[in-house]
Amino acid sequence: QKEVEQNSGPLSVPEGAIASLNCTYSDRGSQSFFWYRQYSGKSPELIMFIYSNGDKEDGRFTAQLNKASQYVSLLIRDSQPSDSATYLCAVNGSGKLIFGQGTELSVKP
Amino acid sequence: DGGITQSPKYLFRKEGQNVTLSCEQNLNHDAMYWYRQDPGQGLRLIYYSQIVNDFQKGDIAEGYSVSREKKESFPLTVTSAQKNPTAFYLCASGPPQETQYFGPGTRLLVL
Fold it and tell me: Is pLDDT above 90 for B3?
């Protein structure tokens, strides 16, 4: 079992819709959870981090964490074509961050 | 102007040659990391360092070497033992086990 799992996609949503990106992790001791966005050919950039169970909102982005289910998600409201990118989930563990394979999101005009 | 810099942006390696990728940060971060990314793939950890003069192997350390003589610098050498080095190399820094901030990356190509 991979330590951090994401659906590879591509996930396709129409402009203005809500995009939902999901991530599961295996280490119950993980305390910190991160979402990065990576445009094609560029380096990853941090979108959000979350430490506590529940929701954390930042503009159009909402991170949701459920430690009991070992599940973290990212919701993007009012999706825009500029949101089209690969989204990487990362979880802390073993002295480093462990990244998922990423989910490719495509927002269609 | 704070941040993480990587150089060069593109690097060409000849057969049997060692090459060194530079990574510098002025964010006063203790931890630094090197990742490799192949087309359409996720990030794979090569080496990481949580403190000066100490570093640990990641998942794919074979054919690579690093040093951490200064807090600001974490160069990566791709040795001739790495038979398939063509990839996008990303350096990151941050507090240990916390948020990592990435440099712009170096694309390594084999001639």
Answer: yes
